């Protein structure tokens, strides 16, 4: 079951480590569309890193900025947007994406995600914690929301180019 792509912004959602930024950048290149990374846009707008925003102002403040930045990116022009892992769990942000974009849930098992994030882990939700424990917990709480995306694609096996091909096939 999938919605055909009609030129609306393609919005990648899913857990940390699933490949939203890398896959999104490559997908945009294949479609000759602009690419935007919501976390980078938030950092540029705030002049602070995601970690600094969490530390200084807290997660609710970050979620609010995330919603505004994604709202601004959803300007009706075709593009590919990578979101941070919590964006689609926020009711307002999710509704914005569902109404104005084509959401694609990229998924992989918590085991695989934990291996991927272990290498370069500065994310505030993972600091000082066991990634597998955190990601297993986040998956159980967030998967019901991610599942609301009309398109589901696995990045379990990789490589990224295969995931891009699977998305292109799914969006028809
Ligand atoms: C978060 C994921 C991060 C970033 C922030 C919070 C989350 O983005 O937005 O650290 O709540 O899952 P990535 O999914 O790109 O790591």
From TrEMBL:
The EC number(s) this enzyme carries: 2.7.1.71
Any GO BP: aromatic amino acid family biosynthetic process
Keywords: Amino-acid biosynthesis, Aromatic amino acid biosynthesis, ATP-binding, Cytoplasm, Kinase, Magnesium, Metal-binding, Nucleotide-binding, Transferase
Cofactor note: Binds 1 Mg(2+) ion per subunit.
Gene (UniProt): aroK
Gene Ontology annotations for the cellular component aspect, listed alphabetically: cytosol
Ranges that cross the membrane: none
Assembly and interaction partners: Monomer.
GO molecular function terms attached to this record: ATP binding; magnesium ion binding; shikimate kinase activity
Leader sequence residues: none
Enzyme class: transferase
Annotated Mg(2+) binding sites: 21
Protein name as catalogued: Shikimate kinase
Essential cofactor(s): Mg(2+)
Similarity comment: Belongs to the shikimate kinase family.
Range of the intact protein held here: 120 to 291 of 292
Reaction equation(s) it catalyzes: shikimate + ATP = 3-phosphoshikimate + ADP + H(+)
Cellular localization per UniProt: Cytoplasm
Amino acids binding ATP: 17-22, 123
Binding, substrate: 39, 63, 85, 142
Metabolic or biological pathway, per its Swiss-Prot or TrEMBL entry: Metabolic intermediate biosynthesis; chorismate biosynthesis; chorismate from D-erythrose 4-phosphate and phosphoenolpyruvate: step 5/7
Summary of the function given for this chain in its UniProt record: Catalyzes the specific phosphorylation of the 3-hydroxyl group of shikimic acid using ATP as a cosubstrate.
